[in-house]
Amino acid sequence: GTPARMELKKLQAAPPSSLHSLSTSYIPDELPGRQAEIEKLLKLTNACLVRRYPKSVFVTGCPGTGKTATLKKICSELRENAGQRQYKGKTKFEWVAATTLRREDEVTTLIADALGFPGYSLEEIEEACEDAMHKPMLCFVLDEADQVFSTKAGKAVISKLFRWTLRPACPLLFVAIANAIDLAHRVVATVAIQQHKPIVFNFRPYDSDDVQQILHARLEVASSEIAVDETVVSFIAKKVCSSSGDIRKAIEMLRKTIITTETTSDVKSVTIASANKVALDAMGTRLVKILNCLPQHVRIAACACVAASLAPDEEVAVRDIYFAYQQLCRRAMLEPSSQASFFEYITALEDSGVVLSTKSRSVKNSTGLGKLSIQKCFALPLRVRATIADLKGAFGTTVLYKELVSEVQSQQEALAATTLETPPRKRRRKV
Ligand SMILES: Nc1ncnc2c1ncn2[C@@H]1O[C@H](COP(=O)(O)OP(=O)(O)O)[C@@H](O)[C@H]1O
Ligand SMILES: [Mg+2]
After folding, report:
1. How far is the CA of 214 from the centre of ligand 1 (A)?
2. Origin, by domain of life (predicted)?
């Protein structure tokens, strides 16, 4: 038909609401890539509500790793269970996004109200609950907990809640969701009850297979005249995963690409070229977002990984990374952490995908429980995914890190020089 006719047809066939599943506020029933987390979290929280014991759960991970969506799903299942079982009426649910709070201690007010102790302070509720086993169990989710934790008063509230859930009579299942992956460590540090660790779930960023699956599922629900080719979805997934793995970015990119195609051309299918154009507008560099979420010593450990490796994806022994880490700490005038803490940093880096373990044995599963000696852990090889460009992108603008990054660069260069002299596989350093 004539161009005018085609315009009209497009408008009729594709009303704006047809892309509702490509909005970032839409939460689908199924969450591909998070099945394992959902299963574990659901089992744990359900047991807690059915058998009535308190618990603190910290869910952390970079933005766009599906934390909110996963917990929303879990809460709705828990609610359903609560409605069916005999403990019906004895479980309450409260979901608070910390960004909507005016003050940190509003958390306390909300909990007091939900438990039927209006106006009580946390200490008063704690006391009242000692002999109030008939009180409903409260499932309290604090989303965007970074917001609360960024102030002193807020820190105190979260620590108190955590401490409270260590008492058997406490009727609270407390779930805190945050971007900062060290939130739990910081809470435990303030409480100084080292033997009681909260349960921590760190959501690692989605990989490109996950993202593809998620986008496909969402496209199936969407309806548009515009066809989206497999290659475009895969292109967007790879593009997003090479920087942050933030699923929000991927969804946004796909939606923008479709809309651009719908409105600017007569083409009936999305092209990689148009996806690329949208991507260029939206992207930063590789891993930068993840690095930005890391706390100080973990960042330095990340720098050390890069310093100890010559090329992306190169295998480096933990020992060499620890050596580089100590040097960088000295450079930053910081006391290097103990080997045990260092293994925790490596675990965090493994969790967030900055390094990958190469053998079946990951550092994460080898330390802590004393399964392997420190000696053996030090010998484990890791694949380093971050590069100097990532470090520059993430930390390049802060004074301390600028210096560190240039130190990393010179260490890398020194390493390259020694590697040239000795056969590649025999590269060793003494610790
Ligand atoms: N596994 C998944 N499958 C489908 N959609 C997802 C998945 N994970 C996240 N999303 C969607 O991505 C968006 C952002 O996820 P969200 O849970 O808010 O991330 P976070 O809380 O970690 O920042 C939401 O629209 C959510 O529905
Ligand atoms: Mg969220």
Report:
1. 9
2. Eukaryota
Those residues of the chain that have pLDDT short of 50 are: 1-17, 284, 369, 426, 430-431
Query: Distance from the CA of 248 to the center of ligand 2, in angstroms?
Result: 10
The reported pLDDT for the residue numbered 430 is 47
The pLDDT tens digits of the residues spanning 328-338 come to: 999 888 899 99
Neighbour tally for 335: CB within 10 Å: 8
Residue 168, domain CATH: 3.40.50.300
Token pair of 132 as six digits = 């109030």
Q: Are residues 196 and 211 in the same domain?
A: no
Query: Which ligand is the nearest neighbour of the Cα of 25?
Result: 1
The confidence score (pLDDT) of residue 426 equals 47
Expressed as residue numbers, the domain containing 352 is 289-426
> Helices in 222-338 by DSSP H: which ranges?
230-241, 247-264, 272-282, 288-292, 296-307, 318-331
Query: What ligand 1 atom has the least distance to the C-alpha of 27?
Result: 27
Q: Tell me how far apart the alpha carbons of residues 4 and 9 are, in angstroms, rounded to a whole number.
A: 9
> Does one domain contain both 215 and 192?
no
pLDDT reported for residue 307: 93
Q: How far is the CA of 71 from the centre of ligand 2 (A)?
A: 9
33 CB within 6 A, ligand 1: yes
> What pLDDT, on the 0 to 100 scale, is given for residue 6?
47
Taking the CA of residue 62 as reference, the ligand 1 atom at the shortest distance is 22
What average pLDDT does the structure give for the chain? Answer: 82
User: Given this model, what pLDDT does residue 17 score?
Assistant: 42
Residues around ion ligand 2, judged by CB within 5 A, are 67-68
Q: Identify whether residues 303 and 400 lie together within a single domain.
A: yes
Q: How many domains does the chain contain in total?
A: 3
Looking at the CA of 217, name the nearest ligand.
1
pLDDT at 74: 96
Greatest CA separation found in the chain? 78
Nearest CA to ligand 1 atom 9: 66
CATH number at residue 18: 1.10.8
Q: How many Å separate Cα 334 from the centre of its chain?
A: 27
Last residue of a domain, one of 160, 187, 202: 202
Does the beta carbon of 289 lie inside 6 Å of ligand 1?
no
* Residue 137 CB neighbour total at 10 angstroms: 22
